[in-house]
């Protein structure tokens, strides 16, 4: 693995990007740059990374030297890695970039395009998208006259929140993705200490094709006054053995992220099972994004 991927970059230092940086540094032991245009987001991510490593030392028996080595592997860099709006470029010897920016199609296609123009193959262009078509993202990486080589290194590498804790990576090849890219991305996911599943480039892949309608139904039950939020969540925790109920889980994922995913799925399929609940839209309009903003279906300190 180390012979194949020696340097990584993660673009976007929110909760997913930070988690991906943590497993890359600690488990895969790969040096990486963590990019974000916001100095505040970057500094919060570094503080969170340090507290996760300190927790591993205090509670999980991680030797201090290993925690220090993991911390040293992560370099925070302002910008999105492409020079857009200032900031440093992703290093030329980067073998894999994983973008973890907001789930907005135009932002992701724009970033993938700029990365493709600046970082030559065979560097992998990985995306942590939860719902956007990989084939569309690879299409945005298509460069004139390269025989499809650039699009062939785009692949979905979908982590789950909280990344340090959830043991899965969903791998999604685009129609254009090469077997070599797929094999290297799988090896990377496994080096990050994750079990890897694979899905075709179908709306919602495996996880969100099933999860998002379930979360949305929970919001609709609440909206209709069928039950309280506590009773909806307790039903899933105690009745189905889920670690948390659907409304608490939506808060954890981020209500803005849930809404974006549902909009992408609804637009792409036209299927009403993906139509976001009005209450979900209203809560996002109110700026209630869930755990990350301090308020969603529940309140967080
Ligand atoms: N980052 C790192 N570690 C975390 C964490 C975080 N944000 N939150 C909790 N943990 C760790 C805790 O430190 C604790 O570790 P130790 O046992 O070593 O102390 C462990 O997780 C358990 O935490 P808690 O005891 O505080 O709480 P819990 O037992 O209720 O577990 C949970 C919290 C891990 C989040 C658990 O409730 C859970 O698994 N929930 C379901 C999460 C889930 O379904 N995630 C997938 C969402 S879908 C997605 O992400 C993809 C998408 O595209 C939308």
From TrEMBL:
Binding-site positions, NAD(+): 12-17, 36, 103, 108, 130, 161, 292
Keyword Ion transport in record: no
Family: Belongs to the 3-hydroxyacyl-CoA dehydrogenase family.
UniProt keyword NAD, yes or no: yes
Protein's UniProt name: 3-hydroxybutyryl-CoA dehydrogenase
Single biological process term from Gene Ontology: fatty acid metabolic process
Residues of the 3-hydroxyacyl-CoA dehydrogenase NAD binding domain: 8-199
Keyword annotations: NAD, Oxidoreductase
Coiled coil: none
Matching Pfam families: 3HCDH, 3HCDH_N
Domain 3-hydroxyacyl-CoA dehydrogenase C-terminal positions: 204-300
Organism phylogeny: Eukaryota, Fungi, Dikarya, Basidiomycota, Agaricomycotina
A single MF term (Gene Ontology): oxidoreductase activity, acting on the CH-OH group of donors, NAD or NADP as acceptor
Source taxon at top rank: Eukaryota
Site (Important for catalytic activity): 158
């Amino acid at each position: 693995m180390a012979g194949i991927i020696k340097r990584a970059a993660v673009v976007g230092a929110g909760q997913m990007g930070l988690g991906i940086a943590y497993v890359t540094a600690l488990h895969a032991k790969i040096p990486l740059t963590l990019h974000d245009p916001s100095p505040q987001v970057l500094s919060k991510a570094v503080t969170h990374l340090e507290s996760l490593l300190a927790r591993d030392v205090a509670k999980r028996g991680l030797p201090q030297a290993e925690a220090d080595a993991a911390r040293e592997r992560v370099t925070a860099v302002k910008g999105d890695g492409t020079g857009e709006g200032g900031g440093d470029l992703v290093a030329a010897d980067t073998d894999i970039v994983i973008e973890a920016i907001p789930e907005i199609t135009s932002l992701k296609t724009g970033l993938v395009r700029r990365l493709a123009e600046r970082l030559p193959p065979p560097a992998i262009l990985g995306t942590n998208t939860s719902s956007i078509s990989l084939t569309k993202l690879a299409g945005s990486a298509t460069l004139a006259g390269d025989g499809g080589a650039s699009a062939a290194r785009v692949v979905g590498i979908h982590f789950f929140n909280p990344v340090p804790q959830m043991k899965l990576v969903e791998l999604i090849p685009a129609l254009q993705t090469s077997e070599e890219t797929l094999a290297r991305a799988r090896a990377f996911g496994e080096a990050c200490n994750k079990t890897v599943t694979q899905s075709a480039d179908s709306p919602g892949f495996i996880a969100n094709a099933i999860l998002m309608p379930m979360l949305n139904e929970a919001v609709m039950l609440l909206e209709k006054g069928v039950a309280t939020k506590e009773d909806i969540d307790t039903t899933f925790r105690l009745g189905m053995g889920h670690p948390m109920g659907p409304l608490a889980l939506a808060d954890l994922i981020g209500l803005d992220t849930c809404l974006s995913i549902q909009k992408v799925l609804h637009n792409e399929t036209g299927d009403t099972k993906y139509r976001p609940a009005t209450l979900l839209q209203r809560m996002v309009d109110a700026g209630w994004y869930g755990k990350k903003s301090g308020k969603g279906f529940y309140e967080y300190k």
